[in-house]
Design a protein that fits this description.
single chain; mainly alpha; 2 strands
Length: 155
């Protein structure tokens, strides 16, 4: 992937994450192009635009992980970090829009029930995200305390 960290395990991790994200993001975007509403329900049609959408989305996701590798392997300027943050927000927006797009196929009389379910799912995800952020803060504080305790000038 280019400027990868020296650790072989880290290289493998970044490659797995990059390939996995590229495939998942490509399939997600391609599925939007492939879904069609017919009289009998929803169908998927694999066409040239679907394949092109898959390739473009996969390349974008691969590029995202290249940015992650560059940021992890060196101290990039703030401009690079801002670009990475903007790119991350754009990918999240695409993910949310992809998640919401199929709502157009739901009959209007059932959309209320679906929205209630989506609201509950979003609440659960937000709760898990909150707990994860608290655990992260706790672990970072614990690590900082351990590093301060291990400093030679403390002994």
């Amino acid at each position: 992937m280019g400027n990868e960290p020296d650790d072989n395990g880290t290289k493998v991790l970044f490659r797995i994450a990059g390939v996995g994200t590229a495939l998942a993001f490509g399939v997600m975007v391609a599925s939007l192009f492939a879904v069609r509403s017919t009289q009998s329900g929803l169908t998927f049609e694999i066409t040239a635009p679907v394949v092109i959408a898959f390739l473009i989305a996969a390349i974008v996701a691969w590029f995202y992980w290249r940015m992650v590798v560059r940021l992890a392997s060196s101290q990039e300027p703030n401009k690079q970090r801002k670009r990475f943050a903007l790119f991350s927000v754009a990918m999240v927006v695409v993910g949310i829009l992809t998640f919401l797009y199929p709502i157009k196929f739901i009959p209007p009389e059932k959309r209320g029930d679906v929205m209630i379910g989506l609201s509950l799912a979003i609440g659960c995800i937000a709760g898990v995200a909150f707990v994860m952020s608290r655990v992260r803060r706790f672990l970072e504080a614990d690590q900082k305390q351990a590093e301060e305790d291990d400093r030679p000038d403390k002994k």
